[in-house]
């Protein structure tokens, strides 16, 4: 299992956001991994373990909404977070065309 997973729920439709490109990078911008959400809106990224430090997840939300013919305010969403230990990290987002929220999942 990857050290990092994510899940995107489209709050406007109440369905998983499938086909969203997601990129994981260090805070300095060095690429670590990339994936696309599956039919359930989920993706795993990265190696089995991430070194402690700050990372960013970039969700290509503009492409997701454009494919549905929906005008959206955010062309992408970037979430920056800190890895401090050896445990699994889950970073989900709740998404709509004009808002998003995130939290540290389990």
From TrEMBL:
Example of a GO MF term: hydrolase activity
Protein purpose: Catalyzes the hydrolysis of 5-hydroxyisourate (HIU) to 2-oxo-4-hydroxy-4-carboxy-5-ureidoimidazoline (OHCU).
Residues forming coiled coils: none
Family matches, as InterPro entries: Hydroxyisourate_hydrolase (IPR014306), Thyroxine_BS (IPR023418), Transthyretin/HIU_hydrolase (IPR000895), Transthyretin/HIU_hydrolase_d (IPR023416), Transthyretin/HIU_hydrolase_sf (IPR036817)
Pfam family, any one: Transthyretin
SUPFAM superfamilies the UniProt entry points to: Transthyretin (synonym: prealbumin)
Chemical reaction(s) catalysed: 5-hydroxyisourate + H2O = 5-hydroxy-2-oxo-4-ureido-2,5-dihydro-1H-imidazole-5-carboxylate + H(+)
E.C. code: 3.5.2.17
Alphabetized NCBIfam families for the sequence: hdxy_isourate (TIGR02962)
Subunit structure: Homotetramer.
Domain Transthyretin/hydroxyisourate hydrolase: 4-105
Gene: uraH
Transmembrane regions: none
Class of enzymatic activity (EC top level): hydrolase
Family recorded in the similarity comment: Belongs to the transthyretin family. 5-hydroxyisourate hydrolase subfamily.
Keyword field: Hydrolase, Purine metabolism
Protein name per the record: 5-hydroxyisourate hydrolase
Hydrolase listed as a keyword: yes
